[in-house]
Write a structure and sequence with these properties.
Elements: H1 2-11, H2 13-16, H3 20-52, E1 58-61, E2 68-71, H4 76-121, H5 125-130, H6 133-151, H7 153-175, H8 177-224, H9 226-231, H10 235-287, H11 293-334, E3 353-362, E4 368-378, E5 382-386, H12 393-399, E6 408-413, E7 416-417, H13 423-427, E8 430-434, H14 444-448, H15 457-466, H16 470-473, H17 493-507, E9 511-515, H18 523-537, E10 541-545, H19 549-552, E11 557-562, E12 565-570, H20 572-578, H21 581-589
Parallel strand pairs: 5-10, 5-11, 8-9, 9-10
Antiparallel strand pairs: 1-2, 3-4, 3-6, 6-7, 11-12
Length: 595
């Protein structure tokens, strides 16, 4: 029990350290609760011998028969007062200890949850491909919650019961040391089920956390992709997947509950056997005249009170076992290295050229995506990158803001390797508009100002007008204060895209990446978005990934990617005349245009 508690706090020691004063207060107050709890049986015994009978003093043999503590009958009234005072002080101390541990526990959980979120937030993109969203959400919510219970309310119980346990052991030793020695020998037998079942609960707890994470992932996918689920009529299939996951959680949860439920009865059976043995011994002592009725009653009350903390230790141990497993999991996630940001130079402004120099890139699974890509992009130029799906277009542009790092070669801005720049200063020079528009469940104004919350109202409105957002906002009842829902679900695809363009406009970064920004739009929406994009592109150095000819034809230069290499380079008319890969793509995708 104590080992598991210490293990949990060892895992969390850097989070406990700022609140060790609260832990000290909790321990000190719990240390007061214990003696007061131990004094109550003795006061009851004193009342029986010195007050109710009124004939004999209450005698407490401390060790054997040599050091007797005698309470004369004349102090009976003070004994009643002492009982009331002891209860009041015990309640106040117990409340203070619980308050201190709750403050400490909730503070630890707040800091842990914030650090966990920070750790996940600053992970590279590859981390999120290896860890499903639902699993991460489960870690931040469910796993942290299991720690919260252990380091707040459960810790308060643990401290109180430990103090009470020690005090009551002192009391029963003072009453009859021989019987107490027998009880201390038998006490580990009572604790044994808690140790055995606690280890099993720890293993089951880890498996249950994984099962909960799987269930959370199913929820996350089906809720965010509900339109796909409905159009493909996969409700029953998804329900079946969720039912299977819920069954696994149910089975593991049931095994945990049954294991926990089995632990307490075993301790109860062992406890009652020990208690009966104690009572039989005490009866013989009274009959022999070596113990008074009051002392016998004090012993019985202390023994019964001793049983309660022993019994509760099983549940407390189980809570600490689960918290220990959860803390290991969470700290394991937090041990993952974040994005590499060892650069010392600040990129104040992009001035001349971006160069890809023999760039190679492969994902963690070893699959090569880019193999020896070299090109340059001068300030103010618009470069289009085309190729079939899987050619590496998106991977190429993701290297520029260092969403991934090159595995060979290098990328430079104005002759300086990207990795030598501070990551924050690098990304401040780049804006991005993608096909998969990510908006937040906030107002249109807040989404436009995302990344620049200190922007003036005039700047936000100017960006909105340039991106043609103003055209549809004027039809909304709440205007720019309209809440757009999760991922902007209350807006159309074209409207969402224009909001994302306004967001990029407001950032006013010199380098712009357009990744299939119009590929999922209808003709009318595309026309509006293209007009907004022209306002965005003007005066910026732009890399465009696009299938639409209307965007590609305006590019100053076009790169054709295939098999991770640049196969062709030139302007639209030149590449068409070559009748190479670009011409083939043109024939497949742009047959509506006569070259």
């Amino acid at each position: 029990m104590i080992g598991t508690t210490l293990t949990t706090f060892t895992h969390l020691r850097r989070y406990v350290r700022p609140y060790r004063w609260a832990l000290a207060v909790a321990v000190a107050l719990a240390a007061i609760v214990g003696p007061l709890e131990g004094a109550l049986p003795l006061l009851v015994g004193a009342v029986v011998d010195s007050v109710l009978s009124g004939t004999e003093p209450f005698v407490l043999p401390v060790i054997g028969d040599r050091y007797d503590i005698v309470i004369p009958p004349g102090l009976g009234g003070w004994i009643f007062f002492g009982m009331i005072a002891a209860v009041f002080l015990k309640v106040i101390a117990a409340y203070g200890s619980a308050a201190a541990t709750s403050y400490m526990g909730l503070s630890i959980v707040r800091d842990l949850r914030t650090d966990l979120y920070r750790s996940i937030l600053f992970q590279p993109l590859g981390f999120f491909s290896r860890h499903p969203t639902g699993a991460l959400i489960s870690r931040v919510s469910s796993d942290v919650s299991s720690i919260q219970g252990a380091v707040s309310s459960t810790l308060a119980e643990f401290l109180k019961h430990i103090a009470v346990l020690v005090s009551l052991v002192v009391v029963i030793v003072a009453i009859d040391w021989r019987l107490s020695m027998v009880s201390l020998v038998l006490l580990p037998l009572v604790f044994y089920p808690a140790v055995v079942f606690g280890r099993r609960l720890r293993r089951l707890g880890r498996r249950n956390q994984d099962a909960m994470a799987d269930m959370s992932e199913i929820l996350s996918e089906t809720f965010s992709g509900n339109r796909i689920v409905k159009i493909f009529t996969m409700e029953r299939a998804e329900l079946g997947k969720f039912r299977d996951a819920a069954k696994r959680v149910f089975r593991l949860g049931l095994r945990m509950k049954l294991t926990d439920a089995m632990s307490s009865p075993l301790m109860e059976v062992l406890g009652i056997l020990v208690l009966v043995g104690f009572l039989m011994y005490a009866r013989s002592e009274i009959q022999a005249g070596r113990m008074t009725q009051g002392l016998f009653l004090a012993f019985v009350i202390a023994l019964l009170k001793l049983y309660e903390p022993v019994r509760r230790m099983s549940g407390i141990n189980n809570a600490f076992q689960q918290a220990s497993g959860a803390s290991e999991t969470l700290l394991g996630i937090m041990a993952f290295p974040g994005e590499s940001d060892i650069g010392s130079r600040e990129l104040r402004d992009f001035r001349h050229t971006v160069r890809f120099e023999d760039v190679r890139f492969a994902y963690d699974d070893g699959e090569t995506v880019l193999d020896g890509v070299s090109f340059s992009l001068v300030r103010g130029e618009m470069l289009a990158v085309v190729g079939q799906s899987g050619a590496g277009k998106t991977s190429l542009v993701n290297l520029l803001p260092r969403f991934h790092d090159v595995t060979g070669g290098r990328i430079t801005i104005d002759g300086v390797d990207l990795r030598d720049f501070q990551l924050l200063s690098l990304r401040q020079q780049i804006a991005m508009v993608t096909q998969d528009v990510i908006l937040f469940n906030d107002t249109i104004r807040a989404n436009i100002a995302y990344g620049n919350p200190e922007a003036t109202e005039e700047a936000v409105m100017a960006a909105a007008r340039a991106a043609l957002v103003d055209d549809f906002v004027c039809t909304l009842r709440d205007g720019y204060d309209t809440m757009i829902g999760e991922r902007g679900v209350r807006l159309s695809g074209g409207e969402r895209q224009r909001v994302s363009i306004a967001r990029a406009l407001l950032k006013d970064a010199p380098i712009l990446i357009l990744d299939e920004a119009t590929s999922s739009l209808d003709a009318e929406s595309e026309a509006l978005v293209q007009q907004a994009l022209q306002n965005l592109i003007r005066g910026r150095t732009t890399i465009v990934i696009a299938h639409r000819l209307s965007t590609v034809r305006r590019a100053d230069r076009i790169l054709v990617l295939a098999d991770g290499r640049i196969r062709e380079e030139g302007v639209h008319e030149e590449l068409i005349l070559r009748r190479g890969l670009y011409w083939k793509l043109h024939q497949l995708q742009f047959e509506d245009v006569i070259p």
